[in-house]
Each structure stands twice: as C-alpha cells, then as structure tokens.
Amino acid sequence: MKIGINGSALLGQTTLDAFEAHARAAEEDGFTSYWIAQAGSIDTLTLIASLSKSSPSLHFGTAVIPTYPRHPAMLASQAMTTQMISGGRLRLGIGLSHKPMIEGIFGMSFDKPVRHMREYLSILVPLIEEGKVTFEGETLTARGEVSFPDTAPCPILVAALGPQMLRLAGQRTAGTILWMVGERTIREHIKPEIGEAAAKVGRAAPQIIAGLPVCVTDEPDIVRKKAASAFAIYGQLPSYRAMLDREGAADPSDVCLIGGEQEVTDCLAAIAEAGATEFSAVEFGSNEEEQARTRQVLIDWNG
Q1: Alpha-carbon distance 276 to 211, whole Å?
Q2: Are 193 and 167 in contact (CB under 8 A)?
Q3: Which parts of 29-174 fold into alpha helices (H)?
Q4: What does the pLDDT look like over 5-44, one tens digit per residue?
C-alpha cells in the first residue's frame, strides 16, 4: 500500500501559490499521488491541470467530484482535458455526495441514487474509454463524442460504501475511493463486495483508496477531541454513519489515525492488511511538531 497526500484541507483558505508549494513538497518528499476534493469555490480539475505543470512527476486524483451538478458528458470532457494537460496523470474520483447538499444547495432530486450512478457511468465510462456514447436512461441521456486521440483514458473511481454501489463500482470502474472507513470495514465489507463484483465480470482486482485524517502526537486524547469536533458531520450523514456503525466507532475520531509513531504505523499496516491498495493521508497536526512528525511517518512508510 502506497501513501499519497490529500491536500483538501487547503481548499477555501489558500492561494494557488500555496497549493503549488504543498504539492511540490509532497513530490520532493517522495509521494507519488496527490488528492483533492471538489469543495468550495475552486474547481478541482482546473486546479489539478495547473498543479501538474509545477509538479511534473506527481499523479493526481479527485476525491471526489459530486456527480449530480455535472452532466457526465461535460465531466468526461473536463476530465480528459485535464488528463491531456497532465500527461496522463489523472484518476477521476466521483461520488453521489449527500441528499442535504444535492437537494438543499442545488435543488435537485436525490431519488434513487444507485440508478443515477448506474446511468451516469453508462455515459461517462464509454466516453472516457471509447470516446463516444449513445445512451438514453430514465434521467440521463447522451449522444456524442469526446475526442482525445493521443491521450490515454483516465481511470475512474467511485466513492462507494453500500453494497449496491460497491458492486456497481467493481463491475464498471477501476475501483473505489473511501473516506472515514476503518480497517475492519474495509476487510469485512468493502474488499469482499467490490472484489467479487469485479471478478464476476472479469475485471482486474479493484483499487481501494482509503482516506483518513492522520496525526502523530504525544497528546492523542486532545487531538482526538479536536478530530471529533472537526469531522462531526461525517457521523451524521447516513452513508458514513453506516460505515462507522460497521466499524463499531462512536464518532469519526475513532477511525482517525492518532497516536505516537508506532501506533500510527501499526494502524497503517492494519489498513494495508485489510485490503487497501493506497492510502490518501489528510495530515491533521495542529502545530509544527505534530505536522513534521506526521509527515515523517508517512515518508518512512513509503520508504
């Protein structure tokens, strides 16, 4: 299991220069992947296209882009443009988001989300992999082409948690990208569901990208309390709450990687053993010492 850096904490409070410096530091520290969420005002694919020029060896991923606000044909065009600019270093992570956001902010129906994702992939996958599509669904339709003849298709990952979404991701995409999912849930639920679905249709073993906050500290109780407050929303949203319940976690802080060097390293080892193929680290240190110690543990893991 390789570790990449998730720069999403910078969203909404920083500049392009700060993102470039953060990504370059990750590259210089030997990390090979850099992940950014689609949140706030910044368009993540545009940002990645820019960062790919200042960090020429990093591979980038979206973690994740909500599907409802962007028609899959438009997203295919945006993603493949970024793939072209970056020289083939993009992984496109997409997800449903959540009912309060889709209905409350965008005024769109969140009815039958699995159907939505199935139809979305029926357009997005062929456009990216084959460059053309003809599809008419109940809620989404597309007929046309996306032509990038000299650019390899970018892998697609789906933020899948429930059984139906995991099976869909396994059958149709390169894998799944997770957030706030602990090692027991990866081992007992995520890996078996998505792996079996991929095997049944003859696809390669899926990528399983696990993402969690990480902090190396001598004050784990204090940091865990901060994490419980900072990430409280993930204990309230139904899809994440279901994963925390599977894990036996009272709140999101229970699945965060918080503790001394050896404790955090042991947690990473458990996640790798559970079946994660890659780890997207959200560094959660609240002071320079914690930040430096956290980064060093992640560097040492990649070795």
Answers
A1: 10
A2: yes
A3: 44-54, 72-85, 99-104, 113-130, 163-172
A4: 999 989 877 799 999 999 999 999 999 999 999 987 899 9
